[in-house]
Amino acid sequence: MRRSLLLLPFSLLALLGTAPAAGAAAPAMAQGRLHEVSVVSVPAAVAHAAEAAVHIDWRRLGYDVTFVAQPTGRGQVHAYTDLASRSITVYVRPGQPAALTAKIFAYELGHAVDFTCLTPSTRRSYLAARGAVHTDWFAPDLSPEQRYGSGDLADTFSAWATHSTPYYSSTVGPVPTPAALHALRAYWSCTR
Predict the structure, then answer these.
(1) Which of 6, 24, 47, 54 would be a feasible disulfide site paired with 12, CB 3.0-4.6 Å?
(2) pTM passes above 0.85
(3) Average pLDDT along the chain, 192 residues, taken 10 residues at a time
(4) Domain covering 2-191 in this structure, CATH number
């Protein structure tokens, strides 16, 4: 299963494949393997700055991360998370602000949190906590993800993990306050 983060104006998520079945338990976290950051055609300082801006032990999620120079012709794709291979690829454009690179990295980690920590029940509870009980979790096809629970969770997780909201784009609920982020952190407790 592959997820793609596209920017229109900031993000649009394409979910290819199928979501976990309703009532299915969240997958267990990967154990016993060190998960690393790879850097391909991007200054190592860019990847290290993004990693340093994310204030969690993201390796506990069991995903490998690669920072790659934005290839020509990729359009607005900024990253993708491949759930099957437990890998995240972050594309970095020349001159891209470090805060945006960190936000994109943390946003993709939010999808890893979703599929590592959450169940259909905790997703419903999260939406209730955000005041969005009638919101669907997954975006259909190439619909803008910021209008759906999965995008809101990824965006909110990113704000919490980076202690920053300048690139917040979810329309499911308001930009979370520090107090709201503190209250919501239980949904990604598997990162601690």
Answers:
(1) 6
(2) no
(3) 33 30 40 56 85 90 90 72 93 88 96 94 96 93 87 96 93 94 91 72
(4) 3.40.390
